[in-house]
Every structure is written in C-alpha cells, then in structure tokens.
Request: fold
Amino acid sequence: MALSALDRRLLDLVQEGLPLVSRPFKALGEELGLSEEEVLERLKRFEQSGIVRHLGASVDSRRLGFVTTLCAVAVPPTEAEKVAQQIAALPEVTHCYLRRHRFNIWFTLVARDYAQVEEILQLLQQKFGVEPRHFPATKMFKLRATFRLSCVEDKHRRG
Amino acid sequence: MVDLSPFEKKLIALVSQGIPLVARPYHVLAQRLGCTEKEVIATLKKLLSKKIIRRFGATVRQNRSGYQGNVMVAWKVPAERLDEVGNFCARLHFVTHCYVRQTSPDWPYNFYTMVHAADEKECKELVTNLAKELKLKDYVLLFTEKEIVRKTRPYFPELLEKQT
Reply:
C-alpha cells in the first residue's frame, strides 16, 4: 500500500499519541486539515492493510508486576518455523523471530514471575528437545516503538 | 509494582487490547465499564503520567512502511564501559532498543541493540561503523529472517470475562 505524504503525517501523529479528548479523531483531523470521517477511514485502511498493528495502550508490564526476558533456542533449520509458530502461540510470548544464527529462534516472554519463566522454558524443553537460554534485562537504555514516517530517507539523524 | 484499583485494571485490560475506531472511542469504553467518558479520559491521563501506560497511540509495522532491514546485534562490552556505550547507542536514531542483559556460559554477549535501516546492506554498514566508533570487536549480527509474532499479552483478562 502506497502512503501519501498526508498518510505519513497522520501515522506520525497517531504514533505520538491519540488525543485524550472526547473526539480524538476530530482533533487529529484539525491538525492535518482532514475531517473526522476521513481520519477514521484512513486509520481503518491502515489497520486492514497491516501498517497499523495496534491502536491503544502500550503498557509497562514491569510496572504492573510482570517480568520480561529474552529467550533463545537452537532448532534444526527445517523445523524452525514449525517450532516458532508453536512458541508464538503461547499467551506469554509477545515477540518471536526467526534469526540467521545457530540460535535461530528468539522470543520474549512476559510472565508473572521468574518461576513462570522457568516453567514455560521447561515445557518447551520437554516438547521440542531444545535447551532454551534466557537473558533478562538488567538495564534499559532505550525503547522506542515509534517510527518517523514523514522523513524515512533521513536515516542518519540522531535522536 | 504499583497498586491499581479494579477499575484501573479493567481499563488497562481493555485499552491494551485496542480501542475501537469510532468517533467517540472513550465513550464506548465507558459504556463497557459502566462509568462516564470523563472518568475514562481522566484515568488514562493518570496512567500515562504514572508511566504505567508507556504510550497511548498507534504501533506501526515498520517493515511495511519503509524500514526493510533490521538486525539485532548482541555485543560483548566490558562491564566498566556499559554506561558509556549504552548512553551513546541510545542517542542514535537507527537504534530503537538498547538493553544490558544477563549472559550464559556459552553466550557472553551482555549488550543488545536493535538496528533499523532501509535494507540489510545499510544495516551492516551502520553496525560496522558503530563498532569502529565504539572500538568494540566482539559482536554478533542476528538478522531477522522472519517475524513470527509481535503481540501484546492479555492483561487482567479475568476481570473482563464478567463484562462480556
């Protein structure tokens, strides 16, 4: 799906935040010179085409008392996708990727506590004969989940 | 960990799943929760200011919007340099995630960056230059072959079942 300059500006704005007012899409439209209906139509189109994966709250799971960790497993390449799909289906798994390395499946877990992390990893060990490792974060320097779209070509910018 | 009221938990359960694309989404949430639109808006503001909600808005799939290349880089950084390296990488626009993590005996890498660029070639160049600049030699490029899933986990789903 081709994005117009206006689409990109709308995506930049709505990534920054949805206004916390009674009619948030009207407020967004006013900044862009679009009607409320036009903003809603465009956002529906972005959701249908998959450009927008989520519209809502990104919560800090740690502040809600959950623990998160990054896990890695090595499986035979021919089985990687099948195993990864089953790992991804667990409700506690929030990200799962095939990566080009001996450790070819990497996923993140958001669990109630580290005991639950161990339980899940043991389950995977029994089910797939893998030896999962996990690397909890000890310090976070940056987490930016937004992408500036109205200046994609400007890639060496710092910030 | 923070203390949340049952109402706050229910609201988090709903808005973490997503909000409806209608003219008055907070009104729809209010009807579902049996409160006023004003209460929904005020509580969302409070949860944002307490940083329990990190961001309230859209999340885009970057690979469908112009950033085709992305690589996770696992670095071995001397412990005494972690703050310097972490702060340096955090300022770079092409680095979106930057974490210090525990290691395991066969995995000595303690520092991770997610690097995004137009394509794989550019990712490699950015990482090579970064390694030179930081004088780090021991690192692994973990290119994304395929995204299997990116989702949010359900929060407090048990509180919502009674509502549906």
About this structure: Residues 153-159 of chain A have pLDDT under 50 and may be disordered.
